[in-house]
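Worked example 4.2. Below are the chains of a multi-component assembly; read each line carefully before continuing.
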Amino acid sequence: MVEFGGWDMPVEYSGISDEHLAVRTRAGLFDVSHMGEIEIAGKDALAAVQQITSNDASKLVDGQAQYSALTTPEGTFVDDVLTYRLNGEHFMLVVNASNIIKDFTWIAARVGAAGDAVAVNTSSRYALIAIQGPAAREVLQALTAVSLGDIKYYWFTTGEVANVRATVSRTGYTGEDGYEIFVPPAQAERVWDAILRSGASAGVVPAGLGARDTLRLEAGMRLYGNDMDETTTVLEADLGWIVGWKKADFAGAEVLRRQKQDGVSRKLVGFEVQDRGIARHGHDVYVNGAKAGIVTSGTQTPFLKKAIGMAYLPIEHTANGTEFEVDCRGRRLRATVVPTPFYKRAK
Amino acid sequence: MYPSDLKYTKEHEWVKISGAEARVGITDYAQKQLGDVVYLELPEVGRMLTQGDVFGTIESVKAVSELYAPVSGEVTAINQALTQKPESVNSAPHESWMIEIKVSGESGDLLDAAQYTELTK
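Applying the procedure described above to all two chains together yields the following structure tokens:
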């Protein structure tokens, strides 16, 4: 167990590789109750969400979610979030565990400017269980009357799972199809046990933080605090697709629009390591012998069996195929810029 | 179980001493703690080691750890095949020797299999 954002979290159950492969080929069950929930409600809730986040929440209808950023006026990340539209006057942001208090303080100080809107930190009201992998739907379907196949990707609905009132969302952080299930904490264990029991014959295994990290990285998904933070803009993190360019205004809009027009000076890229060894978070990047950037995430992926990672590089060195070096405890590893995601599931 | 023909350290290396030669690896307990091993960095042949010196590093998906010399002496061989296939450390830890040392001087404080089993309980 490790301390993570104030929670005691299992790094692994049966082993990172084992759990990673189970998610890619069968299904894995994750307890991600550490994630935070901040709800914004009121007649002007949409206006408030539009002002504090980068993506265009007016495109959402009831029961739909989107990936977005909680942005500073500098266009950098307070956090990355999932915005859920419960109804036109009620939104829920799912935020990173380590940022709950920071985000809530940030949001609470700003929603009022939009008019009639209040923010409530409801993190303690939800436990969150994720089932991810090709067998996820079939396993979960046995425990719910909700027609899971009818929930589209990044949509959600309410119903019962294992006789527990739940919100079921077709989202995840692994690159696989799957569902995230919000349940009351008091009933979380019952739901967890029911899924493991019901999924045993399909080979569902519990999966920890370690596999969650290798899976998300293989799928090219960013991790707050590693790949972006308050010093990196949404465009530098190469997440222009979560900016609602047509919105009138939002925090950081001016900086981001300027960067879109003039271009960024550095960008987050994916890379593969040619030499044996793992380029890890914080390792320096060298281009033509000169220090040029930094590795933000890196691992050896159990499924692709390659050392991969993400790094910030000067924009002139971000083209696919660009070669560079990573300083790994004094040893230089050769690496090449490659497109992300590293892994894409077959549809 | 831990083979009785090996000696062990509290840092979870094993050493197989035959006459003046000693082969060194890491224990089953160590490989389980590390998880999937992906890289092994070993010293040059000829390097002089004192018991307890760092002689290399081992990297798994999860962590990077240092390797400590269980005995003093000169490195006479390194297992090149293992550096090309470091995952063997996971599948056969007690057969996966890393370096060979020509032992010199006293080597105190090594554990036998029973003592090491007790340590890792």
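Take a moment to check your reading of the output against the notes. Helices of chain A lie at 16-25, 45-52, 100-108, 136-141, 185-199, 209-218, 253-262. The first strand of chain A starts at residue 2 and ends at 4.
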